[in-house]
Amino acid sequence: MDRVSHPVSKALAAVGDPSQLLPAREQMAFTLGFHIILVPFGVALTALMLIAHYRGLRHGDGDALRLARRWSKVAAVLFAVGAITGTVLSFELGILWPGLMGDYGAAFGMPFAVEGLFFFLEAIFVSIYLYGWNRLPPWAHFWTGVPVVLASLGGAAAVIAANSWMNQPGGITLRDGHVTAVRPLRVFFNGAFWYETVHMLLAAYIVAGFTVAGVYAAGMLKGRRDRHHRLGFLIGFLVAAAAIPVQIFVGDTVARQVFQDEPAKFAAIELLPATGDHVPENLGGFLVDGKVRYGLPVPDMASILAGFTPSTEIKGLEAIPAEVRPTDRSVTIVHLAFDVMVGTTFLMFGLVLWFAWLWWRGRTMPTNRWFLRGAAVSGLVAVVCLESGWVVTEVGRQPWTVVGLLLTRQAVTTRGNLWPLFGATVALYAAVGIGAVLVLRGMARHWRTAGDETVYVPYGPEQPFAASGTAGEER
Amino acid sequence: MNLSDVVALVMFVGVVAYALFGGADFGAGFWDLTAGGAERGKNPRHLVDLSIGPVWEANHTWLIYCLVMLWSGFPTAFAAITTTLYLPLVLAALGIVLRGAGFAFRKVSVRTPQQRLNGTLFAASSVLTPYCFGSIAGGIASGRVPSGGNGDAVTSWLNPTSVLGGILAVVSCAYLAAFYLATAAHRLDDAGLERYFRHRALLAGAVAGVVSIAGIFVLRTDAPRLFHQLSHRGLPLMALAALCGIVGMAGARLGRRAGRREIAALAIAAVVVGWGVAQYPFLLGTHLRIHEAAAPDTTLAVLLGVACVAALIILPSLILLFRLSGQGRLRART
């Protein structure tokens, strides 16, 4: 390959940004942002489903079993959509970012091989589990769901290994810009692996939990207060409620790790132009011409959060060489996204406290309308939180694709005109998204009016043949 | 044979598996597309749903397997392919989205117009996607992807060998699927539907034969090196493919059931393996050797490890799934 991407100085000789950079980044952000919403349902909805399933079998609870069965069908539809958007991403890695794949595929690509393994396992057992309802012995059927949950955790961890490696690359030997040796364990278990993984998995449980709870809260607002709705609400809500405080603790740890290991990202998060101590925590605000505007500063707070004392020094954007310093706009995006992530997390935590208070007062499932309204939108809030978290880590890495090794403008393709492709992708994904929502709503309506047996899902069992000329009876 | 050859071989096993399992699913989509109006095509379409419903995601996963093996094990070749053949790759990705969404949504949608729209998307993209993959294979095999990438965006896949590859891929998928579906119909004791797909197997086999014979002349002028290798080193495999094709069609004509799916699969596998054998030891055309494109040995070792784990864990699970769905063991217990 004639592409020489290392050392950095050589790359910096390249003037300006290629015209493909903006559309490629928009395309990647859009498709990744779409896909990431589906991930929690593969990772955590399947776990909620097994919780309900376990309860149903253990206590002979028909409501719980029905919930498990319905959730498995919802998970199947979302799994199908997630599988196709995930496949598109693997095409895009090559089509949009040949520099990344060509130069660092030997390291960066490796975790995806492991992910592929988990995905394969998941796809197989999702089918078996969906077919198993009323067909396999009850507990054997329950156990066929366990590989689905475990494989989804493993798969997510493997993808995050690749992503965290881009933030804190290591485990490779470079010669003339080529990877000549790889230390796989160091690539997988890179500096950012554990905290990114734990942070994301918790986020997945929060998103799936609140989304499920939100659906039943909305049902309760419409007057459906039966046990089915209360149980569905409680399983989702309690899982998310348990994850939120842990997430606040983990998120705080992650931020301190980023402070230590990724000072450029941390400077952007804190909207900090110059290195210093007694750094205030800016709530909101923009960076304009290298200066902070309109923020609400809380004195000394950033320093205290980063190092527990006001005298903690935090590196500012100034400390980054001018050629690789992020633009004001990306710094502002990272900072605001961080604020949104933290703000929405505390909103959700507030909802959990409200629930606890209502429960403590009433000793039963709260039916306060304002609480239910809050719960009904909590899934959306969780999705906003998840998206903003990914914006922090992805935009926070700019202008690097692999920090210190590969600039985004070196990774991007120069082929074709990407804007039409981007437009077509948005239209296509909008259609798929709307299709998925319509299908899920149709399923819910069907369940209410016609019962459970007549809803068919992508991997699930079929309806028997219609009685007609050539058709045989299914036995 | 060094480590990179072994990894290339393991990757190629995925290519063959995708051609057979993914191929049968694509072919089912082809027959879905050509099944006629809503009423006439109802039963064939239903059989397509029945037979690929539980396995289509697992079959699709072979593609992911091939991609990750290629980009981790042979990153420079992957970058060269994606910067050259990006147009058919984008079209294939489009096909995969429409196909997956169409198939998944058709099963859940209740109204006929919705089903028709989703079904058409599923079926049309079942033709588009294998065509693109076939033309990509043709582009690679005929040496139109330069080692450094950035080859001609248009002629790299709109050329005689690629067109041949694309058409052959679509026809092979249809051929394979017709045999699979005939067997599925037999399992349901539906003699009418079995006859229906047997006729289509014969038809697809005849078309495949004609395309293959025409292909001899195309390859001789357009990709002489590939033609030479296919007609020398690859000759036994080509002969095997032809033999299986003839035996399979004779079987279909006479209504023989035993082993018909296996023989059809063997014919397709022989063609795909023939491509691999003809291309060895090159990954791209005749200019990039497998070992030149390979990642460092540690990466290759990890990939080999992943493949071994896959063989230990995935294969038994996959066999379980195929047995459960194929033999109808998961039908309702009374």
From TrEMBL, chain A:
GO biological process, one term: aerobic electron transport chain
Any one GO molecular-function label of the UniProt entry: metal ion binding
GO cellular component, one term: plasma membrane
InterPro entries: Cyt-d_ubiquinol_oxidase_su_1
Transmembrane domains' residue ranges: 32-54, 74-97, 109-130, 142-166, 198-219, 231-250, 333-358, 370-392, 418-440
Localisation: Cell membrane
Coarse class of the protein's main subcellular location: membrane
Membrane topology of the entry: Multi-pass membrane protein
Keywords in alphabetical order: Cell membrane, Electron transport, Heme, Iron, Membrane, Metal-binding, Transmembrane, Transmembrane helix, Transport
Family named by the database record: Belongs to the cytochrome ubiquinol oxidase subunit 1 family.
Identification of the protein by name: Cytochrome ubiquinol oxidase subunit I
From TrEMBL, chain B:
Keyword GTP-binding: no
Single annotated GO MF: electron transfer activity
GO biological process: aerobic electron transport chain
Transmembrane portions of the chain: 6-31, 77-98, 119-141, 161-181, 201-219, 234-251, 263-282, 302-324
Bilayer topology term: Multi-pass membrane protein
UniProt xrefs under Pfam families: Cyt_bd_oxida_II
Subcellular localization, as worded in the UniProt entry: Cell membrane
InterPro entries per UniProt: Cyt-d_oxidase_su2
Keyword Membrane tagged: yes
Any one GO cellular component localisation term in the record: plasma membrane
Keyword terms: Cell membrane, Membrane, Transmembrane, Transmembrane helix
Family per similarity comment: Belongs to the cytochrome ubiquinol oxidase subunit 2 family.
Protein name: Cytochrome d ubiquinol oxidase subunit II
